[in-house]
Amino acid sequence: MQPHEPTPPDRADQPESPYAPPSGWGQEQQPPQPGSAIPQHTGAHPTYGTETSKPYGNEPTSPYGAGSTSPYGAQPTSPYGAEHLAPYGAAPMTPYGAPPPVPPQSMPRGLSPFGMPARHSWEIPLLVLVVVCTTVAYLIALVVLIVVLADGAVPSDYLLLLVFAPILVWLGRGLNYATQRVNGVKMSPTQFPEGYQMVADAAARFGMATVPDAYVVLGNGQINAFASGHGFRRFVVVYSDLFEIGGKAREPDALAFIIGHEVGHIAAGHTSYWRQLGMFLVPFLPILGSSLIRSQEYTADNHGYCNRHTGAAAAMGTLAAGKYMNTLVGFDEMADRAAAEKGGFVWFVNALSSHPVLTWRMWALRDRSRHGRLFLRPSPQPPVGAGPYGPYGPYGEVPSLPPKPVP
Ligand SMILES: [Zn+2]
Question: Cβ(236)–Cβ(225) under 8 Å?
């Protein structure tokens, strides 16, 4: 690919403009309309289409109540397009029938694809604990340093690390941002325009005033992405091996989920300097520190889910088995194992992880009736008040993809 070529050669048949009519791999989501929080999903994945259209399908009765009492407006036709309604078609054919009204309190909007994504319920309590620990440790370190210097002794490295934390965090963030600025491929309307549009859409979806910068960096086989900032600037970095899943032959919805997750870290304030300084002690606080990070990851997953819930399964499949086999991963089968895999070692692996273990994370993305489990293994019992939709709440589970033929 030439340095200034606006689109990769394999997409030469597509329009030059990134905002042209849908055809590329970033075109599936339109920017949210002003005053509307409903993600407009116009061109669902053919496989997802029939699945996801079931609960929202062409039914005479809104799942949110009779007629037009839906807070999201009446949708006489599926947002996924009529062609995706087959084989469920009109209401009499749907296996769900006409669902009875569900009390609003059993539908946590923050965990649904609608409204603003929710912060994990444990995040703020754990953050307060960690910030208190960090502040106390910092003040103690300051006093000890003064005493040590007064005695003419040499302070230890750990003491200096803590005392100079404000400068170290600032330096680290500045260096990180500069690294992306000089080495990263910056997304723009002419460079990876579909990815650029996904970032802009996610920022708009979360009500952010400023669209963060976004870079693709060489992944060297690693499946990763992160968000950070420096000063007032915020940015998202997606490794090339993960960014590839957005290619038109793969899973653009999964990339939109990932980008929603990373932009969500920024929207939720995880990338601010003061936040990161207050969490300086996280690596030295076993279980407490990692649990705070895990709760942040659940929060970011809620953002990814809100941004493109149809990409959750393939995004998790990519984290589990890589970019080529992501759609071969049985999402439900793996999520089911969250409840089946038991034991103290399982508990420890999760408790010490920075991210929720994958099976639990998948379970949380499937069961949208409650926040993801931080400490206790998900329960196979249906949650109380799940209503007529089964154990996974009124929004339905994330559809698992049937295996695709490998090209
Ligand atoms: Zn994350």
Answer: yes
Separation of CA 301 and ligand 1 centre (Å): 7
Q: Give the predicted TM-score (pTM) of the model.
A: 0.70
**Ligand 1 mean position to 190 CA, how many Å?**
27
Q: What is the DSSP string of 253-321?
A: HHHHHHHHHHHHHHHTTTT-HHHHHHTTTGGGSTTHHHHHHHHHHHHHHHHHHHH-GGGHHHHHHHHHH
d(CA 236, ligand 1 centre) in Å: 11
Neighbours of ion ligand 1 (CB under 5 A): 297, 300
Cα–Cα distance, 136 to 138 (Å, whole number):
5
| Contact call for residues 348 and 98 (beta carbons, < 8 A) | no
Put the strands of the sheet holding 233-239 in their side by side order.
Answer: 185-186, 213-217, 233-239, 225-230
- Ligand 1 centroid to residue 265 C-alpha, Å: 7
- For residue 328, how far is its CA from the centre of ligand 1 (angstroms)? 23
66: phi then psi, degrees, rounded to nearest 5: -70, 145
> How many angstroms is it from 90 CA to the middle of ligand 1?
40
- Report helix, strand or coil for 178: helix
Q: How far is the CA of 351 from the centre of ligand 1 (A)?
A: 16
Here the tokens at position 356 are 């929720």
CA 4 to centroid of ligand 1, rounded, Å: 31
User: What is the whole-number distance in angstroms between the Cα of residue 166 and the centre of ligand 1?
Assistant: 23
401 contacts 314 by C-beta, under 8 angstroms? yes
Rounded to whole angstroms, the Cα distance separating 364 from 338 reads 10
Cβ atoms 304, 201 nearer than 8 A: no
Spacing, Cα 360 to ligand 1 middle (Å):
15
Question: What's the pLDDT at 167?
Answer: 97
CA of 20 to the centre of ligand 1 (A): 31
261 Cα–ligand 1 center, Å: 6
Rounded to whole angstroms, the Cα distance separating 106 from 395 reads 10
- Give pLDDT, residue 48: 35
Average pLDDT by stretches of 10, the chain with 407 residues: 42 42 36 41 37 36 37 39 36 40 54 89 96 95 93 89 95 98 97 96 96 97 96 96 85 95 97 96 94 97 95 95 91 94 94 95 93 90 49 48 54
